[in-house]
Amino acid sequence: MSKILANQIANYGDDSPIELKEGLSIPVGKPLQAGGQNGSSGQVLSSTGTTVQWVNTFNGDYNSLSNKPTIPAAQIKADWNAVGTLAEILNKPIVPPQPGVQIAETPSGAGNLSYSTLSGIFTFTQPNLSEIDTLSVNSLTLVGSGDGLSQGNLQWNGSDNKFYFGDSYLTRSDAGAGWIGSSGDLFLSSNFGITVTNEDGTKVYASIGGDNQGIILRYDNTDRITTDAVGVNIIGDLSVIAGTTNIPVGSLGDVDLTTAPTDGQVLKWSTADSKWYPANDDVGNTEQGILYTDLSVTTAAVGTAALSYNNSNGVFTYTPPDLSDYDTAFGWGDHAQAGYLTSESDPVFSASVAAGITGAQVANWNTAYGWGNHAQAGYQTALGTHITNITSQQVSNWNTSYSWGDHGTEGYLTSITGETIGNLSDVDTATDTPTNGDVLSWNGSSWVPALPNNLNVAASVYIGDTPPSASNGDLWWESDKGRLKVYYNDGDTSQWVDTNPPLQNPNVPVAVGCITLNGTSPTWSGTAGYTVSGAQPGGGGTDYEITLTFPTAYSARTDYIIQATYDGTNYVSGSGASIGVARGTASVVFTPRRWDENPLSLGEIMVTITNL
Predict the structure, then answer these.
(1) Distance CA 253, CA 255 (A)
(2) Per-residue pLDDT tens for 231-258?
(3) Phi-psi region of 264 (alpha: psi -120 to 50; beta: other; left: phi over 0)
(4) Which of 68-72, 271-275, 298-302, 465-469 has the lowest mean pLDDT?
């Protein structure tokens, strides 16, 4: 049983919560308390499991979150020799080995020239010529009979006194580079070392010591590899046929790693001695380079549009353009329809005597003025018998004019080029000083400055959901409804008035649809943009709260009405069901119950929303 006391409503006897079947409306200015507290601006009600309390909503600041994930520091791939770790540098360029030449200490066989793709070193093994220098006919055992030649054997030919290897022969001489042999011939010389003749007639030389001092490898009379006191010289292209070039960068001639590098360092060029040295990546020895957090952006006050960068603190500063004058002018409407003054036509001046004065007349008066004081010129002032065409009235007028004094000093109007429009008798620019964009408007007695189309106020434009304080002629763009209104004084009262007809009949529903109940997982079928969700705040056995959220919030909950009808004969027996409705500005909450007041989680709620 519910009782209403002076300051409370309670169910006596069962201590159950009270039910507000038709919703709860809190008047403007009245508080809604929880635990004796009104709450503050922006707070929401949250359940603790046993009661509700006011809590703060998320303020949008990432730093105010709890249980934030740990973001690891930037991983920099900086170790040239690392393999299979985060520090490994991918897509490293292949650094060719620094070439060199060495000579094997012990001669062997016919000699050999090899190349190491790992170290870039040419190794020359000298042929064993120890017995050739002392070679004599008597020390050889001839194979075969007579002077016959046999392929593959060393034999002596008595006719030319030469040893032959098959069809080629071996000779030792100090002959010059012009020696010519056949394919496969071996020629020994103290000046040119070992010479071998190829099949195409070209020669390959290998000279050690001799007159040239050092090692010389020649191809067809052209030096290809030479050594001297400075180092090894390679003439022509160097090609690595096979193998790898896994050579440490420190072995390069222009890289100095005397001081071992540390993690994060790079190679920097020194112009003082033309070498690369390990060094930190940026000024200050932070070993981190430039981080994203080192850069920031600030926005300055409006002014001349610009974007600047401060290289001392890493701050970009953006200055937005000042568009306030444009917004004000835009609020005046279509300027092409404003009827601005495009040409001048002064009806008062046109009707005056001055409008009939010609340029020739002005020139004549200027000429007469140059003659001096006409009052002293002795002009005739009385009628003579010989003047018959001058009337007495004319003479009287001239006499009156003469009495005014020297007309030449009176400052009569001789030109209008130096005059302003404000000097005209029927123009008043002194009472209200004209401003930019004003026109001259007739007020019944004179021409005065005014806004175009007789707008006598400086209008401003406001954009927002709620009406601002305003003056006559101000504009308000009601952003939540997309309506432009003008603040209008009809002579008795002032109010906001739509500048164009309403977008739609206010009695036409703006949304219709059906909510299919399914415990805490309802679904919506109807007007696009609306979403539905379910909850059971009190736990099992308590009411289900079905929330329908609007695509655009209203300014006030009284700006619309809700019609909700339950359809669920398959699920409800007895006297049917009831639906509690709680309207809000951004959503409406339905609480369906069976006829016996028990929670209802099945069936359908048919919804119609109409704007007021």
Answers:
(1) 6
(2) 777 777 666 555 555 667 877 778 898 8
(3) left
(4) 68-72
Q: Is the CB of residue 226 less than 8 Å from the CB of residue 235?
A: yes
pLDDT digits 0-9 by tens, 134-181: 444 444 443 433 444 444 445 556 666 565 555 544 554 444 444 445
Among all chains, which residue has been given the structure tokens 């020696």?
A: 179
Contact at 8 Å (CB) between 603 and 595?
Answer: no
Say if residues 264 and 76 touch (Cβ distance below 8 Å): yes
The answer to whether the Cα torsion of 28, 34, 40, 44 is positive or negative is: negative
Q: Count Cβ atoms below 10 Å from residue 87 Cβ, excluding itself.
A: 16
**In contact, 86 and 75? CB cutoff 8 Å:** yes
Give the chain's mean pLDDT. Answer: 75
CA 159: distance to chain centroid? Answer: 93
Reported in sequence order, the residue ranges of 18-75 that DSSP labels E, i.e. its strands, are 44-47, 52-55
Say whether pTM exceeds 0.70. no
**Minimal CA–CA distance to 104: which of 113, 95, 92, 93?**
113
Residue 112: partners with Cβ closer than 8 Å, 6 or more residues away = 123, 124, 125
CA distance 54 to 33: 9
Q: How many CB atoms lie within 10 A of CB 320?
A: 13
Q: Which two tokens stand for residue 370?
A: 């140059």
Tokens found for residue 298: 């600030």
Residue written as token pair 């194979």: 143
Q: CA-CA-CA-CA torsion for 505, 510, 514, 520, nearest 10 degrees?
A: -150
Q: Please, are residues 117 and 243 in contact by the beta-carbon 8 Å criterion?
A: yes
Q: Which of 261, 257, 253, 248 is nearest to 78 (CA)?
A: 261
Name the one residue in this structure whose structure tokens are 């038709």: 22
d(CA 483, CA 471): 18
- Alpha-carbon distance of 473 to 471, in angstroms, equals 6
Q: Quick check: 511 pLDDT over 90?
A: yes
**Torsion (CA) 446, 452, 453, 457 in degrees, nearest 10:** -90
Question: Distance between CA 554 and CA 35 in Å, rounded?
Answer: 29
pLDDT at 379: 75
d(CA 16, CA 591): 17
Q: How many residues does the chain have?
A: 612
